[in-house]
Design a protein that fits this description.
- The protein has three domains: 24-169, Immunoglobulin-like (Sandwich), CATH 2.60.40; 187-321, Immunoglobulin-like (Sandwich); 324-514, no CATH class.
- 5% of the residues lie in helices and 50% in strands.
- It has helices at 2-16, 402-410, and strands spanning 26-32, 44-52, 59-65, 71-78, 87-94, 97-103, 114-123, 129-139, 145-146, 148-155, 164-168, 172-173, 190-195, 198-200, 207-215, 222-229, 234-241, 250-257, 260-266, 277-286, 292-302, 308-309, 311-314, 316-321, 335-343, 348-364, 370-377, 387-392, 397-398, 418-423, 431-444, 447-459, 464-469, 490-499, 502-504, 512-514.
- A hairpin with a 4-residue loop joins strand 32 (447-459) and strand 33 (464-469).
- The longest helix has 15 residues, at 2-16.
C-alpha cells in the first residue's frame, strides 16, 4: 500500500515539472501620429497608444506622464482595438499625468495589434518632451491581468534631424551586471537629474532612496520640481532638503498626490556658491518590485531676483534584477540549521522558536508571495510537525500545517529532506516583524524533538524575492541562536548551524547524537 501511494505521489509531482511554454508578452507603446518631430508652438501633437501581441484583451488602463510645461493635454479618443460596444472611462488629467482606461463587457478583441487610444496635446514650448508610462494593465474577459510591457518615447525639439528615441522600460540586469550612471552631456544650461539614473528595485516592503541633483548651475537661489512615479509600484514616504542651497534656505511643504511629488525651496537674499550638489533626497516604499520610471513633470530654477534660470532635466529608470529560481531540493550533508530538545510531558503544549530574520520597521507581506524552505525530522523524533513561522505586527502567526508536515515523511523509511511552501495571502498587507523556525503544538507526545531546516526563501512562486536563510551563506556566521518568545514544554534545548546530524533516542537508552558534529561556534 505504501509503495502504491508513493508511486502516485511521484506521478503527481512529475506533472508539476512539465515544461511550460510562455508566449511573447503584449507590448503597449507610445507612437506619434505622422511627423515624429515636435510641432511648432501652438500647433497640435497627436500620439497613438498602440498594442502589439495582445491576445484575449477585453480592457486596459494606463497612466501616462508628460511635461506640462511643454505640452497641454487637449483630448483623448478611444482606438479601434477593443470590440464594438467597448466604453471608455473619461480621462483623469492632473499634474502632467493622464489616467485612462476602457473595457468591453463579455467580449475580447479579435486581433492582437491595434490602437488603444489617441491623445492630442497643444505644444507650449520647444523643448524635449518625454511621454512615459507610470503604469499599464491589460485584462481579459474575466478581469484577469494579462502580462505586458511598455515602451515610452522622447520627442526631440532640436531644429535639425529631430528623431524619435524609444526607451525599453522592462530592461532587466543579471547579478554580474554593473550599474553605471549614463553620462550627461552638459551644455550652457543647468541640469537637474535623478540619481541614480538606473537603480535596481529593492524587495517589496523595503525602501528605495533617490536624490535630485544639480550640475553646471550658477546664481541659483531657489528651485521647484514635480516628479511623477508609478504609484502601483511605489509609495512616497518622505523628502529632505539637500545641502546645495545656502544656509537659511527653507523648503515649501511637499505636496504628494496621485503618483506625483511637488517640492521646492528658496534662499532669501542669498544664492548658492556651488555649481553642483544635491537639491533634495526622496524615499519610497516598494509596493511591487517591477520596472517603472521616475520622471520630471516640470522643473524650475530661479536667481535671487526670482528670474528663471534655463535648465534641462534627466529622469531615472527602476529595473528589476533577474532573480534566481526557487530552491526546491536539499541534498543530504553539509551545513544546516539544527534544533533539538526534549519534550518533558505527555499531551502538553509545546513551543520552541528561534529567530532567523527580524524586521525592525516591519516588512509588508505581499499577496501572491510565499515562504519556501526545506525541512527534515529525525526518524526518532516524537513529533514531525514544525518548520518556519511568520509573525506580524498584528500578533498573527502563520506557520506550517501540522498534518501536511507529518504526511510529508510518513511514507519514507529514512529521514529525508522535504520541501514546504507557506502562502502569505492570509496576512497580505500586514507587516512581518519576525520569521522564526521551530515547532508549536497544543498537545505533543513526550520524547525527542529533532529538526533540520535550510534554504528559507521569500518567493513569488517561481523566483527568489529574498534569501532569508541559506546555510551556504552562513559559513562565516558566528551569531548565537536564541529562543524567540516563550519556551514551553521543552528542556535541554540545543540550536546551532553545523554539519547535518540526526538525533536518535534508542529505547531504554539516554538521548544521544550520531554523525559528525562540526559547529561553527
Amino acid at each position: 500500500m505504501k509503495r502504491n501511494r508513493f508511486a502516485s505521489l511521484l506521478f503527481v509531482t512529475s506533472l508539476l515539472f512539465l515544461p511550460i511554454f510562455v508566449s511573447a508578452q503584449a507590448v503597449i507603446s507610445v507612437l506619434p501620429v505622422g511627423d515624429e518631430n515636435l510641432p511648432d508652438i501652438g500647433d497640435l501633437l497627436s500620439v497613438n497608444i498602440d498594442i502589439a501581441d495582445g491576445k484575449g484583451v477585453a480592457g486596459f488602463e494606463f497612466k501616462l506622464t508628460y511635461r506640462d510645461a511643454v505640452l497641454e493635454f487637449s483630448e483623448a479618443k478611444l482606438g479601434d482595438f477593443l470590440p464594438a460596444g467597448a466604453f471608455a472611462v473619461p480621462p483623469k488629467v492632473e499634474g502632467g499625468t493622464i489616467l485612462y482606461g476602457a473595457t468591453a463587457i463579455g467580449a475580447t478583441a479579435v486581433g492582437t495589434d491595434g490602437t488603444l487610444a489617441t491623445f492630442t496635446f497643444k505644444v507650449l514650448a520647444q523643448k524635449d518632451s518625454d511621454l512615459t508610462f507610470l503604469s499599464a494593465k491589460l485584462s481579459d474577459a474575466v478581469a484577469k491581468e494579462i502580462t505586458s510591457t511598455t515602451k515610452a518615447v522622447t520627442i526631440k525639439a532640436e531644429v535639425e534631424e529631430q528623431k524619435l528615441t524609444e526607451k525599453n522600460e522592462t530592461e532587466q540586469i543579471k547579478d554580474d551586471d554593473t550599474q553605471e550612471v549614463d553620462p550627461i552631456l552638459v551644455g550652457d544650461s543647468a541640469v537637474l537629474a535623478i540619481n541614480p539614473a538606473k537603480v535596481v528595485s529593492p524587495s517589496v516592503g523595503e525602501t528605495l532612496n533617490i536624490g535630485v541633483s544639480i550640475a553646471n548651475a550658477t546664481d541659483v537661489a531657489g528651485f521647484e520640481f514635480k516628479l511623477a512615479y508609478d504609484d502601483t509600484a511605489l509609495e512616497f514616504s518622505g523628502i529632505k532638503l539637500g545641502s546645495y542651497l545656502p544656509t537659511g534656505a527653507f523648503a515649501v511643504p511637499v505636496k504628494a498626490e496621485a503618483g506625483t511629488v511637488l517640492y521646492g525651496a528658496t534662499a532669501i537674499g542669498a544664492k548658492s556658491v556651488k555649481s553642483h550638489g544635491e537639491l533634495a533626497s526622496l524615499s519610497f516604499n516598494v509596493i511591487i518590485a517591477k520596472p517603472s520610471a521616475i520622471e520630471f513633470v516640470s522643473a524650475k530654477l530661479s536667481d535671487p531676483n526670482a528670474k528663471e534660470i534655463p535648465s534641462s532635466n534627466v529622469g531615472a529608470k527602476i529595473i528589476i534584477r533577474e532573480a534566481e529560481a526557487v530552491i526546491t531540493e536539499r541534498q543530504s550533508g553539509g551545513q544546516s540549521l539544527n534544533l533539538q530538545a526534549t519534550i518533558t510531558e505527555e499531551g502538553q503544549p509545546v513551543n520552541l522558536q528561534t529567530i532567523v530574520s527580524e524586521y525592525k520597521d516591519g516588512k509588508v507581506a505581499a499577496k501572491g508571495t510565499f515562504i519556501e524552505y526545506q525541512v527534515k525530522f529525525s526518524q526518532d523524533s516524537a513529533i514531525k510537525t514544525g518548520g518556519v513561522y511568520i509573525h506580524t505586527d498584528k500578533g498573527n502567526i502563520l506557520g506550517p500545517d501540522g498534518l501536511q508536515a507529518m504526511r510529508s515523511v510518513e511514507d519514507t523509511e529514512d529521514s529525508t529532506w522535504t520541501h514546504a511552501r507557506i502562502s502569505l495571502d492570509p496576512i497580505s498587507g500586514e507587516k512581518i516583524v519576525a520569521i522564526t523556525t521551530g515547532t508549536r503544538m497544543d498537545s505533543a507526545p513526550k520524547g525527542l524533538f529533532s529538526m533540520l531546516v535550510d534554504n528559507i526563501q521569500l518567493t513569488d512562486g517561481d523566483k527568489i524575492v529574498e534569501s532569508i536563510w541559506l546555510s551556504k551563506d552562513k559559513l562565516d556566521d558566528q551569531s548565537d541562536l536564541k529562543v524567540y518568545g516563550d519556551q514551553v514544554g521543552v528542556e535541554q534545548v540545543k540550536m546551532d548551524v553545523a554539519e547535518e546530524k540526526v538525533s536518535v533516542e534508542p529505547k531504554d537508552k539516554i538521548l544521544t547524537s550520531w554523525g559528525q558534529i562540526k559547529s561553527e561556534k
